[in-house]
Glutamate-1-semialdehyde 2,1-aminomutase
Amino acid sequence: MSTTPETDERLDAGPHSRALMQRAHAVTPGGVNSPVRAFNAVGGSPRFIRSAQGPWLTDVDGKRYVDLICSWGPMLLGHAHPEVQAAVQAAVARGTSYGTPTEPEVELAEEIVARTPVEKVRFVSSGTEATMSAIRLARGFTGRDVVVKFAGCYHGHVDALLASAGSGLVTFALPGTPGVPASSTELTLVLPYNDRAAVEAVFAEHGDRIACLVTEAAPGNMGVVPPEPGFNAFLAETCAKHGALFVSDEVMTGFRVTREGQWGLDGKVEGWRPDLVTFGKVMGGGFPAAAFGGRADVMGHLAPEGPVYQAGTLSGNPIATTAGLTTLRLATQEVYDHIGGAADVLKQAASEALSAAGVAHTVQSTGTMFSVFLCDGPVRDFNDASRTDAAAYAAFFHSMLDAGVYLPPSAYEAWFLSSAHDDEAVQTVLDALPAAARAAAAAGGAA
Ligand SMILES: *Cc1c(COP(=O)(O)O)cnc(C)c1O
């Protein structure tokens, strides 16, 4: 609890946000329902948001911000999109949950199958559930237990994946948090990202025990660290050679970096498919919906068709699937072109402002998604990402926030845009960047 409103020097949140945070602290651990919202990495008191429209957030003190988080990815069309709102309101008027199959589930599954390499898909309620279920299915399908992941890739708070590397490359992982028993991670191997030799070494040693390798299709949870050209193809090939499944986590990148996710940038072009894919964020249109899917023969092992158990009371909820379906139907190529164009403008402006202030930085992107590391590049893996200057980022973040731009309150995140980010929103960000870059320099980020 490093930032109670009373003890923090940066009392720059308005009185209503601060009062709510005080009440929240009394009844919720850390005052928040997901840790990054607490601002612990940047200091200061979080803004409580009351409403949002297009690219703008409005907090409970009436201050407006250009939103560069977009709910951590989902709001591809911006907030309160009129057609999404109308579809959701119509769905709510018909009832909110039946515990039976519904039409929007079928339509959303068809839309996902049409855009992505998956042949069949099963809906769940969060990205965590999607990766947890995909791993169970991979283990059930292969009859093997070992899972390989990369350091810095986040797949939700699944016990087996909250793991950090052991002392050597081919040694099994240690729990990444108290509460995860060693027995949950002793079947997990954690490797450095973009490191082919490490992948080859673990498959040489443990290949016949590996059920699957799971990776973010393009990591975004250590900042954006794109796969080096051919890396995902190499992973798919290595898995196939050893009878393991290649699980591509597109919870963040799916329907965001392109219409077809990261796969649209590499797999589709290079001619390979992951065995399983996980989705979330954009496909829920701002509601709790996520999915995992893949090869029909693998998905056929799932209950009730096959023996691997998986279920959910609210899975495929009609409101969530309606929001997701409406969002995806509206997510045309023009939407991605617009977001990509705005991203290019912001990437260049951020880099120019930081250069002018003499702040070491690297801007990295995949498709329409990008992040700004406050360290020299390239950033190829989690070790590199860890060199980012957290104090400089905190100063940068707060300067932007004061100027009405809501960046992620952590240096290890992507910046998210939407099709609603218009000239006014982009200009607000451009106007805020030079002073923020100078604040970063003053806080210790000078090259
Ligand atoms: C956000 C995220 C998850 C977890 O999704 P939740 O809905 O937060 O459980 C999993 N994988 C990736 C790549 C993510 O970005």
Residues 126-128, 131, 154-156, 216, 221, 249, 251-252, 280, 290 surround pyridoxal-5'-phosphate (CB under 6 Å). The first strand starts at residue 49 and ends at 53. The two ends are 32 Å apart (CA to CA).
